[in-house]
Amino acid sequence: MAVTASLTMARLISAPTAVSLSSTALLASKTLSFAASFPLKYRSTPLRFASTTTISATISVGDKLPESTFSYFDPAGELQTTTVSDLTKGKKAIFFAVPGAFTPTCSQKHLPGFVEKSSELKAKGVDTIACISVNDAFVMKAWKQDLKIEDEVLLLSDGNGDFTKAIGVELDLSDKPVGLGVRSRRYALLAEDGVVKILNLEEGGAFTFSSAEDMLKAL
């Protein structure tokens, strides 16, 4: 009778464990099967500035840059304005644009690259190197001070986006989490006497071939 009681007790103890393990395995199997059916739906993606539109602009190589006015603060802290004609007439000028001041790629790579290579670019005959952004002049001034830039690169405000719209390189980031609104796509161009000779236009805010190094190679 003791043996029978022991066997009965063993069954009572082992049976729930076996059922529990089986149920857990079945549930796990079904969960994995369900997840495999929807591999991308709930996967978060990092914030990107890239656009899904075709890379194009209303400006192209051989075109004359449209006249436009930019603002900036001079070394004395006075607000000044300049125009496309002022910057390009009888000169070789590099204009490069960024989606926004203080944004990571613009602050860590794009603008610092042109500051670093400014002497080499000017040795190849470039008279003007200007960074353009759809930010107000006060933001551009603060950005310049933050990066400790002197006169290597001129930081220009296209605050209302007039020049950016005129050459057709708007980048709409108004539906992104950071709410940047309408900015400029990233690009770098070389103009001689106002005529575009090189145009490296990125897809959205991508940074693949609009660097100072890329411009040096093209000169």
UniProtKB/TrEMBL annotation:
Q: Mind telling me which InterPro entries this protein's record contains?
A: PRX5-like, Redoxin, Thioredoxin-like_sf, Thioredoxin_domain
Family, as annotated: Belongs to the peroxiredoxin family. Prx5 subfamily.
What EC number(s) would the UniProt record show? 1.11.1.25
Q: Which reaction does it catalyse?
A: [glutaredoxin]-dithiol + a hydroperoxide = [glutaredoxin]-disulfide + an alcohol + H2O
Entries under Pfam families matching the protein: Redoxin
Tree of life domain? Eukaryota
This chain's protein is named: Glutaredoxin-dependent peroxiredoxin
**Gene Ontology MF terms:** thioredoxin peroxidase activity
* Organism, scientific name: Tetracentron sinense
Report the enzyme's class at the first EC level. oxidoreductase
* This protein's record includes keyword Oxidoreductase: yes
Which Gene Ontology cellular component annotation is one that this UniProt entry carries? cytoplasm
Q: Which residues form the Thioredoxin domain?
A: 59-219
Active site feature:
C106 (cysteine sulfenic acid (-soh) intermediate)
Q: Which GO terms describe its biological process?
A: cell redox homeostasis; cellular response to oxidative stress; hydrogen peroxide catabolic process
Q: Per UniProt, which keywords does this protein have? A: Antioxidant, Oxidoreductase, Peroxidase, Redox-active center
The record's function comment reads: Thiol-specific peroxidase that catalyzes the reduction of hydrogen peroxide and organic hydroperoxides to water and alcohols, respectively. Plays a role in cell protection against oxidative stress by detoxifying peroxides.
